[in-house]
Amino acid sequence: MRKFQDKGGEDKEVVTAEDDYICINCCHPSSSLFLKYSDNGIRLTPCSNCGKAVDAYIEYDTVLVIIDLMLQYIEAYRHFLMNTSNRVSFMLFRMKLYLQYCHKLCIIFMLCDAYSKWIRRRIMLGNENAYDLEWKFYECLLQSLLEMTSFMVILALMSPNISTTLSINKMLQIFCAGSYGNVFAVLSVIWHLHFLWSYRVLTEMFIFISHVQTQQALYNVKLNRSIIVVVMATLVSRSIGLLVDSFCFI
Question: Transmembrane stretches, by residue range (predicted)?
Answer without folding.
Answer: 97-116, 136-159, 171-191, 226-244
